[in-house]
Amino acid sequence: MLSMMKIHSNSIRARNINESLNESSLYDPQNIAFDLLGNLWVADSYNNRVLMYKADRIHPNRFHNGQPANVVIGQPANVVIGQPDFTTNRAPNPPNRSSLNTPNGIAFDVNQSMGCRYWK
Q: Which terminus of the chain is more solvent-facing, meaning fewer CB atoms within 10 Å of its CB: N or C?
């Protein structure tokens, strides 16, 4: 596993209740990971998706205690996985090959294959 970090939900107030669901919204993000290109991947748990933010949307040169200190929240994501678009958050139970259901973990292996963990 490379660059997997847990997000403490009470420290990030990210919810899209009473707000529109889009490429800039998060609802209870649980985990982040960086790929070898520096792209940020977020397990957007209650929106049942994983979002990717290109490396140019984050500030990798700003670190605190070895961790990125300034990731701009509210920037639009570039890629969505687990949903057909940025405005859908359905979760079939069980998930199918093109969906996610409450992802709470994300990581990359040495071949850059992404793995995702779910609540059960």
A: C
Residue 50 sits at φ, ψ, to 5 deg, of -120, 130
User: How far is Cα 94 from Cα 91, in angstroms, rounded to an integer?
Assistant: 8
Residues 6+ apart with CB under 8 A from 93: 101
Domain ranges of the chain: 4-118
116 and 100 in contact (C-beta within 8 Å)?
A: yes
Q: What tens digit of pLDDT does each residue of 28-78 get?
A: 888 888 888 888 899 999 999 999 998 876 655 555 555 555 555 567 899
**Six-digit token pair at 4?**
């997997």
CB–CB of 1/109 below 8 Å?
A: yes
**CATH fold of 4-118:** Thrombin, subunit H (2.40.10)
